[in-house]
Amino acid sequence: MTPTDHLVGYGAAIIAGLVIGLAGGGGSILTVPVFVYLFQIPPLIATTYSLFVVGATSLVGSVGYALKRQIDFTVTAAFAIPSFLSVFITRRFLVPAMPDPLFQFRSITIPRNEAILYFFAFVMIMAGLAMIRQPNLEEPASGRPRLGLLALDGLGVGVLTGTIGAGGGFLIVPMLVLLAGLTMHRAVATSVLIIAVNSFVGFMGDVHRDVIDWRFLLEFTAFSIGGILLGINLSRFFSPTYLKRGFGGLVLAVALYMLVKELGKL
Protein backbone atom coordinates (compact mmCIF):
# COMPACT_ATOMS: atom_id res chain seq x y z
CA MET A 1 0.00 0.00 0.00
CA THR A 2 1.44 3.38 -1.05
CA PRO A 3 1.61 6.57 1.06
CA THR A 4 -0.79 8.12 -1.44
CA ASP A 5 -3.37 5.42 -0.67
CA HIS A 6 -3.01 6.18 3.04
CA LEU A 7 -3.44 9.91 2.40
CA VAL A 8 -6.52 9.38 0.23
CA GLY A 9 -7.95 6.91 2.74
CA TYR A 10 -7.65 9.26 5.70
CA GLY A 11 -9.02 12.08 3.56
CA ALA A 12 -12.04 9.89 2.81
CA ALA A 13 -12.45 9.36 6.57
CA ILE A 14 -12.75 13.13 7.03
CA ILE A 15 -15.28 13.35 4.19
CA ALA A 16 -17.35 10.50 5.67
CA GLY A 17 -17.56 12.28 9.02
CA LEU A 18 -18.26 15.61 7.33
CA VAL A 19 -21.22 14.17 5.40
CA ILE A 20 -22.69 12.51 8.52
CA GLY A 21 -22.50 15.86 10.33
CA LEU A 22 -24.05 17.79 7.46
CA ALA A 23 -26.73 15.36 6.30
CA GLY A 24 -27.33 12.91 9.18
CA GLY A 25 -26.05 9.91 7.24
CA GLY A 26 -24.65 8.80 3.93
CA GLY A 27 -20.98 9.31 4.75
CA SER A 28 -20.78 5.93 6.42
CA ILE A 29 -21.46 4.23 3.13
CA LEU A 30 -17.99 5.30 1.97
CA THR A 31 -16.05 3.58 4.73
CA VAL A 32 -16.34 -0.03 3.52
CA PRO A 33 -15.06 0.71 -0.03
CA VAL A 34 -12.21 2.76 1.48
CA PHE A 35 -11.19 -0.10 3.78
CA VAL A 36 -11.43 -2.71 1.01
CA TYR A 37 -9.88 -0.92 -1.97
CA LEU A 38 -7.42 1.50 -0.36
CA PHE A 39 -6.36 -0.37 2.78
CA GLN A 40 -6.76 -3.92 1.33
CA ILE A 41 -8.89 -5.14 4.25
CA PRO A 42 -11.11 -8.21 3.64
CA PRO A 43 -14.76 -7.18 3.09
CA LEU A 44 -16.25 -8.92 6.14
CA ILE A 45 -13.69 -7.34 8.49
CA ALA A 46 -14.14 -4.04 6.65
CA THR A 47 -17.84 -4.04 7.62
CA THR A 48 -16.80 -4.62 11.25
CA TYR A 49 -14.35 -1.70 11.11
CA SER A 50 -17.01 0.44 9.45
CA LEU A 51 -19.44 -0.20 12.29
CA PHE A 52 -16.90 1.02 14.85
CA VAL A 53 -15.92 4.11 12.86
CA VAL A 54 -19.53 5.06 12.15
CA GLY A 55 -20.56 4.38 15.75
CA ALA A 56 -17.77 6.41 17.33
CA THR A 57 -18.09 9.26 14.84
CA SER A 58 -21.86 9.46 15.21
CA LEU A 59 -21.66 9.25 19.01
CA VAL A 60 -19.38 12.28 19.15
CA GLY A 61 -21.67 14.09 16.76
CA SER A 62 -24.78 13.22 18.76
CA VAL A 63 -23.25 14.83 21.89
CA GLY A 64 -22.94 18.09 20.00
CA TYR A 65 -26.54 17.86 18.79
CA ALA A 66 -27.78 16.92 22.27
CA LEU A 67 -26.13 20.01 23.75
CA LYS A 68 -28.07 22.06 21.20
CA ARG A 69 -31.29 20.20 22.23
CA GLN A 70 -31.96 19.11 18.66
CA ILE A 71 -32.45 15.37 19.35
CA ASP A 72 -35.95 13.89 19.89
CA PHE A 73 -35.26 11.10 22.39
CA THR A 74 -38.80 9.66 22.24
CA VAL A 75 -38.51 9.13 18.50
CA THR A 76 -34.97 7.80 18.98
CA ALA A 77 -36.26 5.10 21.36
CA ALA A 78 -39.15 4.12 19.07
CA PHE A 79 -36.80 3.66 16.13
CA ALA A 80 -33.60 2.49 17.80
CA ILE A 81 -34.83 -0.26 20.14
CA PRO A 82 -36.19 -2.57 17.39
CA SER A 83 -33.34 -1.48 15.13
CA PHE A 84 -30.51 -2.43 17.47
CA LEU A 85 -32.17 -5.76 18.22
CA SER A 86 -32.24 -6.63 14.53
CA VAL A 87 -28.70 -5.37 13.88
CA PHE A 88 -27.32 -7.46 16.76
CA ILE A 89 -29.11 -10.61 15.61
CA THR A 90 -28.00 -10.03 12.02
CA ARG A 91 -24.38 -9.43 12.96
CA ARG A 92 -24.07 -12.10 15.64
CA PHE A 93 -25.98 -14.95 13.98
CA LEU A 94 -27.06 -14.34 10.36
CA VAL A 95 -23.81 -13.02 8.85
CA PRO A 96 -21.61 -15.80 10.37
CA ALA A 97 -24.12 -18.40 9.12
CA MET A 98 -23.73 -17.31 5.50
CA PRO A 99 -22.10 -20.15 3.50
CA ASP A 100 -18.78 -19.67 1.73
CA PRO A 101 -18.94 -19.66 -1.26
CA LEU A 102 -22.33 -18.02 -1.13
CA PHE A 103 -23.20 -18.84 -4.73
CA GLN A 104 -21.93 -21.51 -7.08
CA PHE A 105 -23.24 -22.42 -10.53
CA ARG A 106 -21.12 -24.51 -12.90
CA SER A 107 -17.85 -22.60 -13.36
CA ILE A 108 -19.09 -19.43 -11.62
CA THR A 109 -18.28 -19.20 -7.92
CA ILE A 110 -18.95 -16.14 -5.77
CA PRO A 111 -17.21 -16.23 -2.35
CA ARG A 112 -18.97 -14.72 0.65
CA ASN A 113 -16.65 -11.70 0.78
CA GLU A 114 -17.30 -10.82 -2.85
CA ALA A 115 -21.05 -11.39 -2.44
CA ILE A 116 -21.05 -8.84 0.38
CA LEU A 117 -19.41 -6.31 -1.93
CA TYR A 118 -21.97 -6.97 -4.69
CA PHE A 119 -24.78 -6.45 -2.19
CA PHE A 120 -23.06 -3.35 -0.84
CA ALA A 121 -22.74 -1.90 -4.36
CA PHE A 122 -26.43 -2.62 -5.00
CA VAL A 123 -27.43 -0.84 -1.79
CA MET A 124 -25.18 2.08 -2.73
CA ILE A 125 -26.90 2.40 -6.10
CA MET A 126 -30.32 2.38 -4.42
CA ALA A 127 -29.09 4.88 -1.82
CA GLY A 128 -27.57 7.18 -4.42
CA LEU A 129 -30.76 7.20 -6.49
CA ALA A 130 -32.85 7.80 -3.35
CA MET A 131 -30.64 10.75 -2.38
CA ILE A 132 -30.83 12.29 -5.84
CA ARG A 133 -34.60 11.82 -6.15
CA GLN A 134 -35.36 12.78 -2.56
CA PRO A 135 -38.23 15.28 -2.40
CA ASN A 136 -37.84 18.56 -0.56
CA LEU A 137 -38.35 17.61 3.09
CA GLU A 138 -37.68 20.99 4.63
CA GLU A 139 -41.24 21.10 6.00
CA PRO A 140 -42.13 18.37 8.56
CA ALA A 141 -45.16 16.15 7.98
CA SER A 142 -48.28 17.07 9.90
CA GLY A 143 -50.10 14.86 12.40
CA ARG A 144 -49.03 12.67 15.31
CA PRO A 145 -45.83 10.61 15.05
CA ARG A 146 -46.50 7.10 13.69
CA LEU A 147 -44.28 5.25 16.12
CA GLY A 148 -45.41 1.77 15.01
CA LEU A 149 -44.29 2.38 11.45
CA LEU A 150 -41.06 3.89 12.74
CA ALA A 151 -40.39 0.69 14.69
CA LEU A 152 -40.92 -1.45 11.57
CA ASP A 153 -38.60 0.81 9.60
CA GLY A 154 -36.08 0.43 12.42
CA LEU A 155 -36.15 -3.35 12.06
CA GLY A 156 -35.36 -3.11 8.35
CA VAL A 157 -32.57 -0.57 8.83
CA GLY A 158 -31.05 -2.80 11.52
CA VAL A 159 -30.80 -5.74 9.12
CA LEU A 160 -29.15 -3.49 6.52
CA THR A 161 -26.67 -2.08 9.04
CA GLY A 162 -25.80 -5.54 10.32
CA THR A 163 -25.22 -6.91 6.82
CA ILE A 164 -23.11 -4.21 5.17
CA GLY A 165 -21.80 -2.08 8.04
CA ALA A 166 -23.48 1.17 6.94
CA GLY A 167 -25.52 3.27 9.33
CA GLY A 168 -28.56 3.65 7.07
CA GLY A 169 -28.91 7.39 7.53
CA PHE A 170 -30.09 7.78 3.93
CA LEU A 171 -33.19 5.78 5.00
CA ILE A 172 -33.55 7.10 8.55
CA VAL A 173 -33.73 10.85 7.90
CA PRO A 174 -36.68 10.80 5.43
CA MET A 175 -38.62 8.46 7.72
CA LEU A 176 -38.10 10.74 10.73
CA VAL A 177 -39.50 13.65 8.73
CA LEU A 178 -42.41 11.75 7.15
CA LEU A 179 -43.41 9.45 10.03
CA ALA A 180 -42.31 11.38 13.13
CA GLY A 181 -43.04 14.91 11.93
CA LEU A 182 -39.57 16.21 12.76
CA THR A 183 -38.04 19.20 11.03
CA MET A 184 -35.17 18.36 8.72
CA HIS A 185 -32.50 19.62 11.13
CA ARG A 186 -34.00 17.70 14.09
CA ALA A 187 -34.28 14.60 11.89
CA VAL A 188 -30.58 14.89 11.01
CA ALA A 189 -29.62 15.26 14.68
CA THR A 190 -31.83 12.35 15.79
CA SER A 191 -30.55 10.18 12.93
CA VAL A 192 -26.94 10.63 14.09
CA LEU A 193 -27.79 9.24 17.56
CA ILE A 194 -29.71 6.30 16.07
CA ILE A 195 -26.77 5.50 13.76
CA ALA A 196 -24.39 5.57 16.75
CA VAL A 197 -26.52 3.08 18.71
CA ASN A 198 -27.04 0.77 15.73
CA SER A 199 -23.39 0.75 14.73
CA PHE A 200 -22.01 0.04 18.19
CA VAL A 201 -24.51 -2.76 18.76
CA GLY A 202 -23.48 -4.31 15.44
CA PHE A 203 -19.81 -3.96 16.31
CA MET A 204 -20.34 -5.68 19.68
CA GLY A 205 -21.81 -8.62 17.81
CA ASP A 206 -18.46 -8.97 15.98
CA VAL A 207 -15.80 -7.98 18.48
CA HIS A 208 -15.49 -11.48 19.94
CA ARG A 209 -14.75 -12.99 16.51
CA ASP A 210 -12.40 -10.73 14.56
CA VAL A 211 -8.75 -9.79 15.14
CA ILE A 212 -8.82 -6.00 15.18
CA ASP A 213 -5.97 -3.61 14.40
CA TRP A 214 -6.92 -1.09 17.07
CA ARG A 215 -4.14 1.39 16.29
CA PHE A 216 -5.20 1.72 12.65
CA LEU A 217 -8.89 1.73 13.53
CA LEU A 218 -8.53 4.48 16.13
CA GLU A 219 -6.41 6.60 13.76
CA PHE A 220 -9.01 6.31 11.01
CA THR A 221 -11.81 7.06 13.48
CA ALA A 222 -10.02 10.18 14.74
CA PHE A 223 -10.01 11.63 11.21
CA SER A 224 -13.70 10.78 10.79
CA ILE A 225 -14.55 12.44 14.12
CA GLY A 226 -12.73 15.56 12.96
CA GLY A 227 -14.95 15.52 9.88
CA ILE A 228 -18.22 15.27 11.81
CA LEU A 229 -17.25 18.11 14.17
CA LEU A 230 -16.57 20.27 11.13
CA GLY A 231 -19.85 19.15 9.54
CA ILE A 232 -21.92 20.02 12.61
CA ASN A 233 -20.45 23.52 12.69
CA LEU A 234 -21.13 24.00 8.98
CA SER A 235 -24.59 22.40 8.95
CA ARG A 236 -26.45 25.63 9.72
CA PHE A 237 -25.20 27.11 6.44
CA PHE A 238 -26.48 24.32 4.17
CA SER A 239 -29.71 22.55 3.31
CA PRO A 240 -29.38 18.81 4.17
CA THR A 241 -31.80 17.95 1.36
CA TYR A 242 -29.61 19.48 -1.36
CA LEU A 243 -26.45 18.12 0.24
CA LYS A 244 -27.88 14.61 0.04
CA ARG A 245 -28.68 15.04 -3.64
CA GLY A 246 -25.13 16.10 -4.41
CA PHE A 247 -23.66 13.31 -2.33
CA GLY A 248 -25.93 10.82 -4.10
CA GLY A 249 -23.94 11.35 -7.29
CA LEU A 250 -20.69 10.48 -5.49
CA VAL A 251 -22.27 7.34 -4.01
CA LEU A 252 -23.35 6.19 -7.49
CA ALA A 253 -19.85 6.74 -8.87
CA VAL A 254 -18.25 4.69 -6.07
CA ALA A 255 -20.83 1.91 -6.54
CA LEU A 256 -20.08 1.69 -10.27
CA TYR A 257 -16.35 1.55 -9.52
CA MET A 258 -16.95 -1.34 -7.11
CA LEU A 259 -19.00 -3.27 -9.67
CA VAL A 260 -16.35 -2.82 -12.36
CA LYS A 261 -13.62 -4.04 -9.97
CA GLU A 262 -15.60 -7.07 -8.78
CA LEU A 263 -16.96 -8.11 -12.18
CA GLY A 264 -13.42 -7.96 -13.51
CA LYS A 265 -12.51 -10.81 -11.15
CA LEU A 266 -15.07 -13.22 -12.67
From TrEMBL:
<keyword id="KW-0472">Membrane</keyword>
<feature type="transmembrane region" description="Helical">
    <location>
        <begin position="12"/>
        <end position="39"/>
    </location>
</feature>
<protein>
    <recommendedName>
        <fullName>Probable membrane transporter protein</fullName>
    </recommendedName>
</protein>
<dbReference type="InterPro" id="IPR002781">
    <property type="entry name" value="TM_pro_TauE-like"/>
</dbReference>
<keyword id="KW-1133">Transmembrane helix</keyword>
<feature type="transmembrane region" description="Helical">
    <location>
        <begin position="73"/>
        <end position="94"/>
    </location>
</feature>
<keyword id="KW-0812">Transmembrane</keyword>
<feature type="transmembrane region" description="Helical">
    <location>
        <begin position="46"/>
        <end position="67"/>
    </location>
</feature>
<dbReference type="Pfam" id="PF01925">
    <property type="entry name" value="TauE"/>
</dbReference>
<keyword id="KW-1003">Cell membrane</keyword>
<feature type="transmembrane region" description="Helical">
    <location>
        <begin position="154"/>
        <end position="180"/>
    </location>
</feature>
<feature type="transmembrane region" description="Helical">
    <location>
        <begin position="115"/>
        <end position="134"/>
    </location>
</feature>
<feature type="transmembrane region" description="Helical">
    <location>
        <begin position="187"/>
        <end position="204"/>
    </location>
</feature>
<comment type="similarity">
    <text>Belongs to the 4-toluene sulfonate uptake permease (TSUP) (TC 2.A.102) family.</text>
</comment>
<dbReference type="InterPro" id="IPR051598">
    <property type="entry name" value="TSUP/Inactive_protease-like"/>
</dbReference>
<feature type="transmembrane region" description="Helical">
    <location>
        <begin position="216"/>
        <end position="235"/>
    </location>
</feature>
